[in-house]
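Structure, all two chains, one model.
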Amino acid sequence: MNKFGIYGKLVAVEGQRDALAEILLEAADVLQSFEGCIMYVVNISENEPDTIWVTEIWEDSEAHGASIRIEEIQALMKRGRPLIAAAESTRLQTLGGKGL
Amino acid sequence: MNKFGIYGKLVAVEGQRDALAEILLEAADVLQSFEGCIMYVVNISENEPDTIWVTEIWEDSEAHGASIRIEEIQALMKRGRPLIAAAESTRLQTLGGKGL
């Protein structure tokens, strides 16, 4: 199928993980109506106390780029940014599987 | 929603990544009929040449444990094991999002 995937790791400012997760779940709600987004799932880590992992699958990297220009997403990014201490991401090519 | 998630990283023996990915996609097919498995998606890394990431979401860790006892999964694990040079995993609590 060859979709564009991202594992996004966000380390929250101490004590702000749940507030940040809430904002990311709001982003997932906004993306419900955005066709280029196939998956946007928010997870917390069992072992890393301030860490959130976001599992993303997009039709292609252009769809991901377009999502960042959605006004509601930009507003959520503005709210979320002060809660983020560090961020990194792993870029993937999604081959297929169950649950897509 | 509080499901059990795993990011599984598999580093294939050199030259065996695609053969290993094929076996993992077969596992995803077997899991289509296993209710405790919500997601089992196979990805290759853009930057790490021999690396496969499997995104898994299960009803709970017991469902994951039960999947390993499925006869067809055991046969696939037996075929896949010689192709794996290294493995690690990140355990997650899945909160929710789009595409579940």
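The beta strands of chain B are 3-12, 37-45, 51-58, 84-98.
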